[in-house]
What does this fold into?
Amino acid sequence: MKKIFKSIFLAAAAMFALASCQDKDVNLGSRVSLTQTDELQVAAEGAGAFTFGVESDGDWLVVVPSWIKANPRHGSGDGVITLTFEDNYSLVADEAGNVTREMNGVRHGTVSVECASGATSFVVRQDGDPEKPSDEVVTLTIGEFLTKPDGAQVYQITGNVTRIANTTYGNLYLNDGTGEVYIYGMLDRDGNTKNFGSLGIGVGDLVTVQGSKTTYNGTTIEIVNAQYISHVKSIIALAETEKKIPADESEFTVGVDYKGDLKVESDSQWLAFTGLTSDGISFKAFANTEAARTATVTVTATSDGKTASAELKVIQAGAPVGSGSVFKKVSAITSGKKYIIVANGKIALPVAADKTYGYLQVEDVTDVNGSITLENSDNAFTIESATGGYTIKQADGRYLYQSGTYNSFNVSDSPASGNVWAITFNADGTAKVLNTAVNKYMQLDSKYGTYGSYDSEKGAMPVLYELSGEGGGGDQTGVKKVTVAEFNAAAESDSQKYQLTGTIGGTINDTYGNFDLTDDSGTVYVYGLTATDNGYGAKNDKSYASLGLKAGDKITIIGYRGSFNGKIEVMYAYFVSKQ
It folds into this structure.
């Protein structure tokens, strides 16, 4: 395995340090073979011990179900493993409290011996009462699994990891070419939760799990707390699957781990592959003078007749539309100024107008040379001097404060106490924002992904950016600049934003901002225009009137492509600028 990116797969080593190896240092071998590969049949009661041989060029680890015990659980080189089996019985009490011993249904389990390249396994079938349900695990393709009814039946599926949504619980997507399913939590080798990191699974790996089918909210098919069985590392893995870059011309490198020969392809001329170095794959992005754009890079590895690919999405910011609200990183506070709170590329959002408390939710932002440009300053906080520190005020005029034992924030127009924060700056540029009443400091929680205030380390301290200029527009990452005709020809989407410029006309609704928008290529109906971006599906806040627009004005807006009763519409649109 060629190690271009040195730290990306440290998790592969940590995988076994956290597993059932206790104090043993593990240097996994590249192969393992067993003297037993066929299904093993054992009696329901009094089954004798069973031994089998292992051959390996390094360390190995044994994974068994709870009713089978393996001795030893790990070893090195050639060895012998002894299995013992619990009786397949349960104690059952009747209504009178009398306890009887009853045989369970037939049960199955998989014995796996793992090495670095995967696992070799065999199935153990234990006798049981043929009149009772069996726990037999049914092996299916993912496409077949998706058609099965919800229930307790356990299925085994195998697929490649396409995306990992949560690295603590192990929420991820598996795809085998016949379909894709969501794994909502994965148990480790011993059936424990919140230990996904010990498995060393990455995007592209071939993973086998077992679990029952459930459907969340009537739409999302998933396996909840799937039992890990085994996985095989992909021959190609990238250190990151998404890269955000500024609008300026730039060069960057993405780490890669691969076997065999490597091929790199970009679907966009503005993004060029410039070479392979000891640090990874290098690219050059040319300057962008228009709206934000996205390129997809496909990296393909070929080794020993096997081929696997990984994709990298590169998102380049667009040229600013208008002056925007520009925030610059600072290491000191000026009383009365507006600041945004950012950690790990996540901006803290104010507590919603209809709530009086809560953790601060987040949105993604991009720092370009110590500067972040937003469409407006709605998510900024005004920091003002106070006795003993500072107050922190949201754009809606309410102050952040804390009380009691809670780690979340309260907001009020005039808090009686708990609203004074001491703000000091660390050597790395982060800020310690400490509530002086409860002695807790603001952090981006690494587990939940929201901002809270804690008395111990929970995640990342924020960086503060001060508002240095304000206007309309901003860094429109992910927005496509189109004509009206191009917009009308585009597919409907609840995620893609479009930027249009045209003249207001037709019948105008001054409350909700409904009107026709016309440019040289055609006309489209705008169903609701607001002063700021409220998000797709948000309720119209009736802020159109505050913009002071009228028929004949030439404006730039951003919105989504939708339709109603066959009529194309710009939906959930917001104002950018007027010419």
